[in-house]
Amino acid sequence: MILLGRLARHDDEALRGMGDALLFDARFRSAFLGTEHVGACAIAVEAKSERVAGWYWDRGFRRSRTDPLLLTLALVAIRANASQSDREYWLGPEIAAEADIPAK
């Protein structure tokens, strides 16, 4: 399990998609680089509030049964839903072509 630190953005960036960009980067770094080096199977986040937990939920994370502000996302789901260009960006074109991940 990879525990992500707090991902935050300034309020001025609220409508620019900065939060989504930060999460996209963290998810793909975890899915494509983390699994190769640490053997993780999921990423977890500790939401600051119920509103933030809902934001993560809307992006595919699921709540823990014991703590509603702890959410997780399976790395295999990130890898399976990655486009070919995502895989090429994170793995390089040669490795992405040989990866055992079905193309979306």
| Through-space gap between termini | 25 Å
Number of discrete domains: 1
Number of strands: 4
Low-pLDDT runs of 5+ residues are none
Give the spatial strand order of the biggest sheet.
1-2-4-3
Number of helices: 5
Rounded mean pLDDT is: 78
What form results from the Cα inertia axes? globular
Tell me the radius of gyration.
14 Å
Helix content: 40-55%
Oligomer: single chain
- Helix/strand-derived category reads alpha+beta
Topology readout:
Elements: E1 2-3, H1 18-37, E2 42-46, H2 50-57, E3 62-63, E4 70-74, H3 75-80, H4 84-91, H5 93-98
Parallel strand pairs: 1-2
Antiparallel strand pairs: 2-4, 3-4
Short description:
It contains 5 helices and 4 strands; from the N terminus they run E-H-E-H-E-E-H-H-H. It is an alpha+beta fold and 104 residues long.
Characterise the protein shown here.
This protein is globular. 46% of the residues lie in helices and 13% in strands. Strands 1-2-4-3 form a 4-stranded mixed beta sheet. It has helices spanning 18-37, 50-57, 75-80, 84-91, 93-98; strands at residues 2-3, 42-46, 62-63, 70-74. By secondary structure, it is an alpha+beta fold.
